[in-house]
Design a protein that fits this description.
The complex is a heterodimer of chains A (286) and B (328).
Chain A: H1 2-41, H2 47-51, H3 67-99, H4 103-117, H5 120-133, H6 140-165, H7 168-176, H8 181-192, H9 194-210, H10 215-218, H11 236-244, H12 249-280
Chain B: H1 5-8, H2 11-14, H3 19-63, H4 66-71, E1 75-76, E2 81-82, H5 85-116, H6 119-134, H7 137-163, H8 180-204, H9 208-216, H10 221-250, H11 253-258, H12 276-283, H13 293-325
Antiparallel strand pairs in B: 1-2
The chains are: A mainly alpha (286), B mainly alpha (328).
């Protein structure tokens, strides 16, 4: 009896150690990645890096910085997120306040799930075919459209989940007072889900700004500052990808700096969404 | 919504509505139509992507049978040879190795979080997983190139050559460090937060009465986990792994940067491989001059999409059923 008892507890102890090791591995890998990016990126960051475009032509020049990529990425991911929000918010509101669980709602959700699963490289290729067909070249507009498509399912599904979690009583109270469903959607639901919307926006923005495969063909790459919707625009992920493979240390440095900046932007978005949603959450009636 | 019959009955009654109410009802109706039109977009987009991919792959499917393309070993676009076998096997090797690396620690971590960890650790873990999930794939790629590839090249490969020279899955003549293992390690870390999050949800959804009943009979926690929780969670675990797999299959940049990109069917985890997304990313844009090349690449995209959707939709359905059964 005693022996068996002891055996059980030894097994338990071993299992516990294994779990702690796995937990440490997951947490440790994050630390390891951040360490690599920081130790390579920090020495490469300086004022010129942040305020100048590369000089010397075709991303081989050794002078200058990565301002073109920073701006390009912010503009493209920002506009992409905005467009996705404009399309996605009505869909999310429609799904919950008008449709609930009807057949059409199920189809729309299924379509959004399928779109979510489509890899970004396929979005990139899809947009590129489309652009070729209408005679458009790689341009900032193409990048914006690709990112909009990429972010739309993420944003819409995230908002949809938020609305689902809302208590129904408020909506019903508003309806009972005689408001139309549109008024309920705009004045009650939207206000209640505000923290959720912000979280969803920042999540989608983070995905968009970090994605390289979708802008690879659609936005192209250039050393110039983003100056027109119809010209190619640089982006941070591609700045990393292209410059890292160059044999010049000065150019590689720009890749490390770009990686650090991209990581910082994404982490700020991730942590910021947490902070904002907890702050805005104060006004939500539970 | 309940509304009095008289309001919707006809022209004569609606004339009696106050102008403000009429406007409100009009705008409600208008919004309903507008919202409906918006909701067509995702459905139309999903269908359109499929149709366009099939339409673009059609030219090459007319020349070669689908079987020929899928099992063809040789990829020489200039000679009109488009064999997808090296790319399909490359994709599967990388994904499978990544899952083998990722799933055991993820499972243990999820069990730890749901059964053992105190509140504080859970509160730290959630943002930590979010951060890991938020890091862009290019950054993972850099990390793979700077940390994993040199490790494999300088430590693992000499070790293997010295002590395990003829070990089946490790035997390789690729000395660069770029290869399936590097891609798989990077991918494993990328999909880990995703898998852990789903597993955690699944385990949290197991009714606590089951656990309590088992513990009340005098079992240790480990026995409860082994005999009660894991069997209950099994479908959910499979679904979580399936979702992770669909993520891994479509990942482009991080893998592309470390996997070596050699169009040959791999035989060892130290071989280089050339997964489908990398094929598309590397060649699209410069395929215009070779006949059927773009059609072949779109077929690659179609194959990739079909594989991913099979994993994705099956796992989502299983997960829905699991969560539904548990009364959520």
């Amino acid at each position: 009896m005693k022996k068996r008892w002891a055996k059980r507890h030894v097994a338990e102890a071993i299992f516990k150690v294994l779990m702690l090791v796995s937990f440490a591995m997951v947490a440790g890998s994050l630390a390891l990645i951040l360490w690599t990016i920081l130790s390579k990126g920090l020495p490469a960051i300086n004022w010129a890096m942040l305020t100048q475009a590369p000089k010397g032509g075709y991303y081989l020049g050794k002078e200058g910085g990565i301002l073109n990529a920073i701006l390009g990425s912010l503009i493209m991911a920002g506009s992409g997120t905005l467009l996705a929000l404009i399309i996605g918010l009505p869909i999310a509101l429609y799904l919950e306040t008008y449709l609930r669980n009807s057949l059409w709602a199920r189809y729309v959700r299924l379509a959004l799930d399928i779109l979510w699963g489509i890899p970004s490289i396929v979005y990139g290729a899809f947009c590129f075919i489309f652009m070729l067909a209408i005679g458009m070249r790689a341009s900032m507009l193409g990048g914006i459209i690709a990112l909009t498509l990429l972010e739309l399912p993420i944003l819409t599904r995230a908002m949809d989940e938020v609305i689902r979690m809302l208590p129904r009583d408020l909506e019903q109270a508003a309806l009972a007072l005689g408001s139309t469903r549109l008024e309920v959607a705009l004045r009650v639901v939207t206000r209640q889900m505000l923290p959720g919307i912000v979280t969803a926006i920042l999540l989608a923005f983070g995905r968009g700004i970090g994605d390289a495969a979708s802008v690879l063909f659609t936005a192209g790459y250039t050393d110039r500052m983003p100056n027109s919707l119809l010209r190619p625009a640089a982006s941070l992920p591609l700045a990393i990808y292209f410059q890292l493979s160059m044999p010049y240390p000065e150019v590689q440095k720009r890749a490390y700096a770009a990686a650090l900046i991209l990581t910082v932007i994404v982490l700020v978005a991730s942590l910021g969404s947490r902070w904002i949603s907890s702050r805005l959450g104060k006004n939500v009636i539970k | 919504m309940i509304k009095p019959k008289s309001l919707s009955a006809g022209e004569s009654q609606s004339a009696r509505l106050s102008p403000a109410l009429a406007v409100r009802r009009q705008s409600d109706k208008l919004a309903k139509w507008l919202f409906f039109i918006f909701s067509i977009i995702p459905v139309a987009l999903a269908i359109f992507i499929f149709v366009l991919l099939i339409y673009k792959s059609w030219p090459i499917l007319k020349v070669n049978s689908i079987w020929q393309l899928l099992t063809g070993q040789v990829w020489k676009p200039e000679e009109g040879l488009f064999g997808f076998w090296p790319f399909i096997t490359g994709t599967l090797w990388v994904t499978l190795t990544a899952l083998l690396i990722a799933v055991p620690p993820c499972l243990l971590t999820a069990i730890y979080l749901s059964e053992y960890a105190g509140r504080n650790i859970r509160a730290v873990m959630k943002p930590l997983l979010d951060l890991l999930a938020a890091i862009p794939s290019v950054v993972y790629g850099i990390w793979g190139m700077l940390a994993i590839v040199p490790w494999i090249q300088n430590r693992l490969e000499p070790f293997v050559q010295q002590y395990l020279p003829n070990f089946p899955l490790l035997k390789s003549d690729n000395p660069t460090g770029f290869g399936i293992l590097a891609g798989a390690i990077v991918l494993a870390i990328m999909i880990a937060p995703f898998i852990i999050a789903v597993l955690y949800e699944v385990m949290n959804n197991i009714p606590s009465g089951l656990k309590d009943a088992s513990l009340a009979l005098g079992t240790t926690k480990l026995q409860t986990i082994h005999r009660v929780i894991l069997p209950q969670a099994l479908p959910g675990i499979i679904a979580a792994v399936g979702l992770g797999a669909s993520r891994a299959l479509g990942e482009t940049m991080a893998v592309l940067m470390v996997v070596g990109n050699v169009a040959k069917a791999p035989h060892s985890i130290l071989d280089a491989a050339y997964p489908l997304p990398a094929l598309i990313a590397n060649n699209y844009g410069e395929m215009m001059s070779i006949p059927l090349y773009d059609s072949a690449l779109m077929t690659a995209a179609l194959i990739l999409l079909v594989i991913i959707l099979i994993f994705n939709v099956t796992s989502a359905l299983v997960l829905q059923r699991v969560m539904g059964r548990m009364g959520v």
